[in-house]
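Format notes (please read before filing issues)

Several people have asked whether sequences and C-alpha cells are stored in separate files. They are not. Every record keeps both together, in the order shown below: the sequence lines, then the C-alpha cell lines. Line labels are part of the format and must not be stripped during preprocessing.
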Amino acid sequence: ITLLLCLGLLGCSGSNNPQTAKNTGFEFQPVDLTTKVPRVEIHHDDAIVQSAGVPVKKVIDSTDSDNQPKKIYQFAETIFGTQVELSKTQMILSWIAVNDTDSAKAKSIESIKIAQKIARAVLGDEGGKLVDQTIQSGKGQETTIDGHSVMVTDCVMGTCLMHIER
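Then the structure lines:
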C-alpha cells in the first residue's frame, strides 16, 4: 500500500514562512501549537487512531518489515490521504502533499492536518513540527523524540513517511 502511495502522487514542498509554508506554489498551514492535542501512549493503537480526529475509512491486515502482524488504517476513501500502519514494534505515518490540481491540493491539506494531529498525539509538539519540516524541505531526517527513534523519508512523488520505533 505504501509503495502504491509513493508511485501515484507528485511533488512535496514548502518554506519557512511562519504563517504559511510555501515553495514552488504548495502552501499549507503549519502545525497550530496553540491548539492542544492530548498525548496518547505509543503502544495504544486505538488511541493513536482516534487522535486523527476523523473516522477510519478502511482497515487492512498486513505484516511489517519483520514479518510481524500489522494493521493499516486509512483515513481517506482512496490511498490519496493519510494512513497509519501499526505493528508491535513500528508505527508508520504517511501523508500526501501535492498541488497538481485544486482537488489534490485540498486533499493534501486535509492529509497534512491529520498527520500533524497524529504526530503530535504520539510525539508531542516536536512530532507536528517534524511533519511540517518534512513538507517544507522535502528531505528525510533521523531523530529521537521521547526516546523513540524516528526516521522521516524524503517526500517522494508527494508522499511523505514517518517511521517510528515503538
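For reference, the curators noted about this record: The two ends are 21 Å apart (CA to CA). The first helix runs from residue 2 to 8.
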